[in-house]
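in:
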Protein backbone atom coordinates (compact mmCIF):
# COMPACT_ATOMS: atom_id res chain seq x y z
CA UNK A 1 0.00 0.00 0.00
CA UNK A 2 1.16 3.48 -0.74
CA UNK A 3 1.38 6.24 1.86
CA UNK A 4 -1.61 8.09 0.40
CA UNK A 5 -3.87 5.06 0.56
CA UNK A 6 -2.80 4.43 4.19
CA UNK A 7 -3.67 8.03 5.13
CA UNK A 8 -7.03 7.76 3.39
CA UNK A 9 -7.82 4.49 5.13
CA UNK A 10 -6.78 5.98 8.51
CA UNK A 11 -9.05 8.97 7.96
CA UNK A 12 -11.97 6.75 7.03
CA UNK A 13 -11.35 4.53 10.04
CA UNK A 14 -11.22 7.63 12.33
CA UNK A 15 -14.52 8.85 10.91
CA UNK A 16 -16.14 5.45 11.36
CA UNK A 17 -14.88 5.15 14.94
CA UNK A 18 -16.00 8.68 15.77
CA UNK A 19 -12.53 10.06 16.42
CA UNK A 20 -13.20 13.09 14.24
CA UNK A 21 -15.70 14.32 16.85
CA UNK A 22 -12.97 14.88 19.42
CA UNK A 23 -11.63 17.81 17.41
CA UNK A 24 -14.94 19.67 17.62
CA UNK A 25 -15.91 21.88 20.54
CA UNK A 26 -17.64 19.91 23.30
CA UNK A 27 -21.09 21.18 24.25
CA UNK A 28 -21.97 20.83 27.91
CA UNK A 29 -25.55 20.01 28.76
CA UNK A 30 -26.70 20.77 32.30
CA UNK A 31 -29.54 19.01 34.00
CA UNK A 32 -32.19 21.17 35.67
CA UNK A 33 -31.84 21.52 39.45
CA UNK A 34 -35.47 22.46 40.14
CA UNK A 35 -34.16 24.80 42.85
CA UNK A 36 -36.43 27.82 43.17
CA UNK A 37 -34.71 29.78 45.95
CA UNK A 38 -31.13 30.94 46.23
CA UNK A 39 -28.83 29.33 48.77
CA UNK A 40 -27.88 32.74 50.17
CA UNK A 41 -30.33 35.58 49.67
CA UNK A 42 -29.31 39.23 49.29
CA UNK A 43 -28.75 40.70 52.74
CA UNK A 44 -29.02 44.53 52.77
CA UNK A 45 -27.57 44.87 56.30
CA UNK A 46 -24.32 43.10 55.36
CA UNK A 47 -24.01 45.08 52.13
CA UNK A 48 -24.58 48.34 54.03
CA UNK A 49 -21.68 47.51 56.38
CA UNK A 50 -19.43 46.72 53.42
CA UNK A 51 -20.38 49.99 51.72
CA UNK A 52 -19.75 52.08 54.82
CA UNK A 53 -16.32 50.57 55.44
CA UNK A 54 -15.17 50.70 51.84
CA UNK A 55 -16.57 54.08 50.77
CA UNK A 56 -15.64 56.01 53.90
CA UNK A 57 -12.02 54.83 53.69
CA UNK A 58 -11.73 55.40 49.91
CA UNK A 59 -13.29 58.87 49.70
CA UNK A 60 -12.09 60.45 52.95
CA UNK A 61 -9.31 62.57 51.41
CA UNK A 62 -10.69 63.00 47.86
CA UNK A 63 -11.03 66.47 46.34
CA UNK A 64 -13.15 67.16 43.28
CA UNK A 65 -11.36 67.08 39.92
CA UNK A 66 -13.48 66.70 36.78
CA UNK A 67 -10.74 64.69 35.05
CA UNK A 68 -10.26 62.17 37.86
CA UNK A 69 -13.81 61.66 39.14
CA UNK A 70 -15.20 59.62 36.18
CA UNK A 71 -12.40 57.06 36.54
CA UNK A 72 -12.87 57.05 40.31
CA UNK A 73 -16.60 56.30 39.89
CA UNK A 74 -15.85 53.42 37.54
CA UNK A 75 -13.16 51.90 39.74
CA UNK A 76 -15.29 52.28 42.89
CA UNK A 77 -18.24 50.57 41.20
CA UNK A 78 -16.03 47.68 40.03
CA UNK A 79 -14.38 47.28 43.45
CA UNK A 80 -17.69 47.34 45.31
CA UNK A 81 -19.24 44.87 42.88
CA UNK A 82 -16.26 42.51 43.28
CA UNK A 83 -16.38 42.69 47.09
CA UNK A 84 -20.13 42.01 47.16
CA UNK A 85 -19.84 39.16 44.65
CA UNK A 86 -17.32 37.53 47.02
CA UNK A 87 -20.21 37.22 49.50
CA UNK A 88 -21.60 34.49 47.17
CA UNK A 89 -25.14 35.72 46.64
CA UNK A 90 -26.01 33.05 44.11
CA UNK A 91 -28.78 33.75 41.60
CA UNK A 92 -28.43 37.51 42.11
CA UNK A 93 -27.23 40.09 39.63
CA UNK A 94 -25.30 42.81 41.45
CA UNK A 95 -25.69 46.32 39.99
CA UNK A 96 -23.70 49.21 41.44
CA UNK A 97 -24.38 52.87 40.70
CA UNK A 98 -21.86 55.49 41.88
CA UNK A 99 -22.48 59.25 41.54
CA UNK A 100 -19.90 61.76 42.75
CA UNK A 101 -20.28 65.54 42.50
CA UNK A 102 -18.72 68.73 43.72
CA UNK A 103 -20.28 70.43 46.73
CA UNK A 104 -21.46 73.90 45.74
CA UNK A 105 -24.46 74.44 48.01
CA UNK A 106 -26.81 72.74 45.56
CA UNK A 107 -29.45 70.07 45.88
CA UNK A 108 -29.27 66.70 44.12
CA UNK A 109 -32.03 64.17 43.57
CA UNK A 110 -31.17 60.69 42.26
CA UNK A 111 -33.90 58.42 40.89
CA UNK A 112 -33.70 54.83 39.66
CA UNK A 113 -36.58 52.67 38.54
CA UNK A 114 -36.88 48.91 38.06
CA UNK A 115 -39.48 46.23 37.76
CA UNK A 116 -39.22 44.86 41.25
CA UNK A 117 -39.92 41.60 43.09
CA UNK A 118 -40.44 42.73 46.69
CA UNK A 119 -39.84 39.25 48.10
CA UNK A 120 -36.45 38.60 46.51
CA UNK A 121 -34.92 41.83 45.20
CA UNK A 122 -33.14 44.32 47.42
CA UNK A 123 -31.07 47.47 47.40
CA UNK A 124 -28.80 49.48 49.65
CA UNK A 125 -28.05 53.20 49.35
CA UNK A 126 -25.16 55.00 51.00
CA UNK A 127 -24.40 58.71 50.96
CA UNK A 128 -20.99 60.18 51.70
CA UNK A 129 -19.91 63.80 52.12
CA UNK A 130 -16.70 65.60 52.89
CA UNK A 131 -15.93 69.29 52.48
CA UNK A 132 -15.23 68.92 48.72
CA UNK A 133 -17.51 66.20 47.34
CA UNK A 134 -20.72 64.29 47.84
CA UNK A 135 -21.21 60.69 46.74
CA UNK A 136 -24.30 58.58 46.28
CA UNK A 137 -23.75 54.83 45.99
CA UNK A 138 -26.62 52.42 45.34
CA UNK A 139 -26.22 48.63 45.19
CA UNK A 140 -29.02 46.49 43.78
CA UNK A 141 -29.36 42.75 44.27
CA UNK A 142 -31.72 41.59 41.51
CA UNK A 143 -32.87 37.97 41.70
CA UNK A 144 -32.39 35.86 38.58
CA UNK A 145 -34.73 32.89 38.01
Amino acid sequence: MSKESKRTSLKLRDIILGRHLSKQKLIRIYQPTYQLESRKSFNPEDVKKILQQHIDSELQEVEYNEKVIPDLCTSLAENIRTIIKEQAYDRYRIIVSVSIGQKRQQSVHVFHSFLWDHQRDGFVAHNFENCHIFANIVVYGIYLD
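note: The chain has a mean pLDDT of 84.
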